[in-house]
Every structure is written in C-alpha cells, then in structure tokens.
Amino acid sequence: MPGRPVLGHSPRDLLKSRRRFVDGPALPASKVFTMSLEQDVHHVPGSSTELARERALALAALALALALGLDVDLAKPEAEPEWPCPRPRPSQRPSQRPSPPLLLLLLLPQLLPLPLPLPLPLPLLPRPQRPRGGQVTQHRRSGEIPSMPQPRAVELVEITRDNVDRLGVFCCMSKRKSPGYQDKLAWCHERFGEGLRLKLLGDRQRGFIEYGPGEHAWRVLQAKGYLVIHCLWVVGKSKGQGHGAALLQHCLDDGRKSKHKGVAVVTSEGTWLPSRAIFERFGFELVDQAPPGFELWALRFKRSRKPKFPTDWEARAKRFGKGLTVVTTSQGPYHPGEVDAAIQGATEQGIDARVVKLVDQAEVQARSPSAFGTFGMVLDGKLFGYSYLLKKDFPKRLAELRAG
Predict the structure, then answer these.
(1) 67 and 188 assigned to the same domain
(2) Helix, strand, or coil here: 395?
(3) Do 212 and 290 fall within a single domain?
(4) What is the spatial distance between Cα 5 and Cα 380, in angstroms, rounded to a whole number?
(5) Are residues 160 and 276 in the same domain?
(6) Cis peptide before 84, with omega less than 30 degrees from 0?
(7) Residue 235 gets which letter from DSSP?
(8) CB 404 within 8 A of CB 343
(9) What residue numbers bound the domain in which 328 lies?
(10) Within a domain: residue 140?
(11) pTM to 2 decimals?
(12) Burial of 195: CB neighbours in 10 Å, binned 0-12, 13-18, 19+
C-alpha cells in the first residue's frame, strides 16, 4: 500500500527511535525510497554536527516521500551490532559525499513543487561533553576501572650517597641539626649500599617515596625477592595532582626492570603509614594482616610465594616485661620526639619506662613488637602503640588498654 513502510516500522515509531540514518544505496528509478538503519552507539569526535544534519535531512526526506505516496523501504542491518559497539575505523566514518536523502530533497521539490511537511519533531543527538583541555569524554564500559589521574610532567630527583647531604631526606628538613635528622642521614648513608631507593618530587613539588629490597626491609615481614615500600608521602598543594601515582608507578617500573618478584607495602589507617586506597587502584592484593590494624598488600609480577607477616606478636610483646618499653630506630627523623613524649607521659602516670634502640635490620625483624618495625611502645607485655602519642593523649590510651 502506498505510503506504508515495510518491515513494521511506522513513521511515528521511527521518529521515537534512538537510531540514525547512514548512507544507503542510490535512489532506484522506480522512486522506491531505500534507507538503512544502524544503532547510534558512539559519537565520532568532530562529526556530531554532520550526523545531526544528515539525520534531519533523512527524516525530512522520509516525511516527504510518505506525503507523495511513495513506497518506503526501511532496510535493517543484517545483524544488530554488539554492545558496546567498537569505535569505527577511519574507513567506516561518514562519507563526505551527498547522501541519498540529501539528493531526494534536492530533486523532488523541482519535480513536484509541494510544500515540505516541516518542521518535524526531531530528537536531537546529545552533544559530546568536552572537559578541560579539549578532549572528548569517552563513555566507559560498565565495570571498567577508572584510569589513574595523569600528573603533569614533574622531574623525580634520586637521592644518593653523593647528594643526600645537600638535598636532604625530605622529612624534618627545617631541623637539619636535630638529633632525629642526623640519625636519619646516617641511616641513609648505610642503607644506600643495601639497595635503598629514595625519590623526591622535583619542580617545587612536595612528596617522596622510599623503598628497597625485601631482604633489607625495615618493616617486619617476609618478602624475599620483592621491593618493599617504607614510605609514600605527598603533602600540601601537591596533593590531588596524581603525584602519588607517579611515584608509585616509578617504583613498579623499577621493580620490573630489576627483575624482582613484585612490590609489597604495609598499610594502616593510622599515622606514618600509607592508606590502602592507592594500592588497590594499582591492582595490589591483600595478602596478610597483623594486629592491631596492619595490612600487607602486594603486586606480584609473576607466580611466586606471597609476602607474609610473622605470627608471634604476643610473644614479642611479652618479652619486654613490665612497665613501658619504647622501641625505636634511626629510620624515622621524628622518632626522638615520639620517645620523649612517651617517656614523659609514662612518668606523669607513675609508670616505669625505658628505651630500647634497634640498631640493624636483623634486630628489627626479630624483636620489633609490630609490623611497623621502626617504632613501638609496649606496656606490661602488650602493644601500646606504634605512632606519635601526645602527652595529653597518654592517659586516654592508657585507660583504653587497661579496659580492653
């Protein structure tokens, strides 16, 4: 019947559909108007205006053809494309030559001077969103992990035995003459020979990463063949620019280049240790846990034994006996201040206190009361804390330990 589309598609259904027209075969001499339909599953950057114009012309041509009583043949594709449809190759992008709908609009008004049935209620194509920088946002597949933030290029400064005295160790730089800073400086000189890596952000950015071989790690864990991250820290206005991701990626690249099994890190939501979030985004897996809230995360480059914590934490704490024992090392430049605060807090509470300094990595692995390794406090054979504790907070923490 003239004016009735085949394949069950009415003009109203067509106008309500989320489809667009593409180039079809040339208009036959019998004046049967032929189009093909294709799902609109992507936008080609830079061609949305062209597609919208071609769609409007195609729908106008369809309405004109129906008004003139022509048979309309809407040809479907042989198979519906899978979702999400792959991005079209350059050879598949819309042609610049005039399409059959455009030719129909140009020729039919000259043959049959009838008013065009316009305006049509055309559904408009959504315009692609353009974020800062002019890049077209690409819609991400469901379940796909978002990409890491891309930092602007910032030089990484490698600290070595030759330049550490001049460039420093990042922490406690305003107090270079303090005992804590001097201890850290001497500690670095000794550790560089064991493979310690210390990288600082350049270009006036503030952040650093410290890591080294698992055989010489100052965190309490078994990670032979892995690189172990001690610290990953970005501060101040340098936060939120992807610098932490850049530092971590540099460590991963270093581990692959040096043929290590992977990279491991101890995390905690407390002070002095990184949070787990960034490592999860990089594909690290949780491989072990230790009291009171330490987690061991690892990214393995190949099939190998997972790193792990020791399990004798209660026995370690009991060996320190009665009173408060403050366990410290030279790895942290802030440890002397932590020691003084703990001793003063214990004295005010009438508790006997003493300090035990672990001098090498083997002693840390064997005696440290927590996975943190380089600092800890043990009270009456139980772990009291591993991070900075202000004098005013000492009574509160004491009450919590005795109550629990």
Answers:
(1) no
(2) helix
(3) yes
(4) 89
(5) yes
(6) yes
(7) -
(8) no
(9) 313-403
(10) no
(11) 0.63
(12) middle
Structure confidence by residue, pLDDT tens digits, 207-244? 999 999 999 999 999 999 999 999 999 998 898 889 99
Specify if 135 maps to a domain.
no
- Regarding whether 317 and 292 lie in a shared domain, the answer is no
Here the CATH number for the domain that contains residue 377 is 3.40.30.120
Do 66 and 97 belong together in one domain? Answer: yes
Is 145 inside a domain boundary?
no
Same domain membership, residue 288 and residue 210: yes
For the cut 60, the answer to whether the pLDDT of residue 294 exceeds it is yes
The model's pLDDT over 105-139, given as tens digits with 9 standing for 90+, comes to 544 544 444 444 444 443 433 444 443 433 333 33
Query: Which amino acid type is present at position 297?
Result: W
- HSE-up of residue 344 (Cα within 13 Å, Cβ side): 12
Amino acid 41: pLDDT: 35
Domains identified in the chain, total number: 3
Query: Which string of DSSP letters, residue by residue, matches 151-214?
Result: PPP-PEEEE-TTTHHHH--STTGGGTTSHHHHHHHHHHHHHHTTT-EEEEE-TT--EEEEEEEG
Q: Which residues pair with residue 19 across a beta bridge? A: 39
The structure tokens listed for 342 are: 């703990």
The SS3 call for residue 264 is strand
* Residue type at 29 in one-letter notation: A
- Report the alpha-carbon distance of residue 365 to residue 209 in Å, rounded: 22
| Separation between Cα atoms, residue 250 and residue 43, nearest integer Å | 35
* Strands 294-300 and 375-379, bridge-based pairing: unpaired
The phi, psi pair for 260, rounded to 5°, reads -80, 165
Residue 194 lies in a domain: yes
CATH of the domain at 191: 3.40.630.30
Express each pLDDT in 72-112 by its tens digit: 555 544 444 444 444 444 444 444 444 455 445 544 544 44
